Amino acid sequence: MIEVRNLTKSYGRRTVVEDLTFTVPPGRVTGFLGPNGAGKSTTLRMILGLDAPDSGAALVNGVPYAALAAPLRAVGALLDAGAAHPGRSARAHLSWLARAGRIAPARVAEVLDLVGLGGEGHRRIAEFSLGMRQRLGVAAALLGDPGVLLLDEPLNGLDAEGIVWLRVLLRDLAARGRTVFVSSHLMNEMEATADHVLVIDSGRLVADVGVGELTRRAAGGRVTVATPRWAELAAALPDGSVRADGAGRLTVTGLDAAEVGEVAARHGIALHELVPHRSRLEDAFLDLTRDLDSPRVYAAADREEER
Ligand SMILES: Nc1ncnc2c1ncn2[C@@H]1O[C@H](COP(=O)(O)OP(=O)(O)OP(=O)(O)O)[C@@H](O)[C@H]1O
After folding, report:
1. What protein family does this chain belong to (predicted)?
2. Who has the most CB within 10 Å: 119, 180, 246, 302?
3. How many Å apart are CA 44 and CA 66, to the nearest integer?
């Protein structure tokens, strides 16, 4: 569990993280989204105790990172895939980390296998592609079999197979009760990876919402429906929610597909089409951040559409 409370950080006169408050619970993949420079890495560094906030607090399992008894076992982090010493072999790098964290040496081979580098442990990190470095960074984060994982842009540099591999791994870790917190500036990548997203822009929280809920709300709950009895259905739906094309198709706003289907069923109207319109997460994000002078922060805990 990660808890961030009123976290604020400025560099010089620029406030890069502003009064951030959120919770990342175990058991789901939480995406941390925002454009370049939004303040994601700064927030992750403050959670890991690498940067001090000006005010507010970041707690991991109820305490500041620095107060964790066995930090590498509690929290695994991938911040910068380029941080490993290029002259070392992957195995030597992980063995060094394992020793520092008092983690059994046998775990090194296990995590190399887990990230698909089982046959590459002897190779120098300098020879690794960016994708292989990302995998090595994930291996390092998993070394202590931590309950909390923080990964900064882990999909960067991965090929299509690598992206699918990481998605499956992260979802599996979440299913096994881990807290998984993953940043990305690419909205569409997160749509397939995260259950829930926190969106920040200019250091401020603009959404804290289930992925399904975010896309549905950004699309305005628009549904198209086709039926030969369209005029009757239009009359049965709330005033002002329906636009008819006159050729058997209605566009309904403010109701979801299930609600429209229920109304039709109550009136015995057969539907030939019932199509909810989900915008892509990217559209949803743009919609949310378009007017940042009045950011629309909403929590959707009551209507989660978790997968
Ligand atoms: N040590 C620092 N000194 C001064 N400014 C900094 C420092 N670290 C970050 N910043 C600034 O803070 C802002 C937020 O940066 P941060 O790296 O947290 O954003 P981000 O959301 O992670 O973006 P990216 O996706 O590009 O990594 C940026 O404008 C950055 O230039």
Report:
1. Belongs to the ABC transporter superfamily.
2. 180
3. 14
Question: How far, in Å, CA of 188 to CA of 280, rounded?
Answer: 7
Report ipTM (2 d.p.): 0.93
What is the per-residue pLDDT across 64-96, written as a single tens digit (0 to 9) for each? 999 998 888 899 999 976 677 888 899 999 999
Dist. CA 108–CA 272, nearest whole Å: 57
* Strand pairing report for 179-184 and 29-33: parallel
Q: Which of 10, 16, 47 gets mutated to test ligand 1 (max ligand atoms within 8 A of its CB)?
A: 16
Structural domains of the chain in order of their starting residue, each with its CATH number? 2-216+291-303 (3.40.50.300), 220-276 (no CATH)
Question: 11 in ligand 1 pocket by Cβ < 6 Å?
Answer: yes
Question: Average of pLDDT values for 148-157?
Answer: 91
- Report pLDDT digits (tens) over 268-302: 999 999 998 765 566 666 666 655 444 444 333 33
Q: What is the pTM of this model?
A: 0.77
What are the backbone angles phi and psi of residue 33, rounded to the nearest 5°? -110, 150
Q: Which amino acid is at 296?
A: R
Higher local confidence (pLDDT), 217 or 162: 162
Q: What φ, ψ does residue 184 adopt, rounded to 5°?
A: -160, 150
For ligand 1, say whether the CB of 116 is within 6 Å of any of its atoms.
no
Pocket lining: 186 vs ligand 1, CB cutoff 6 Å: no
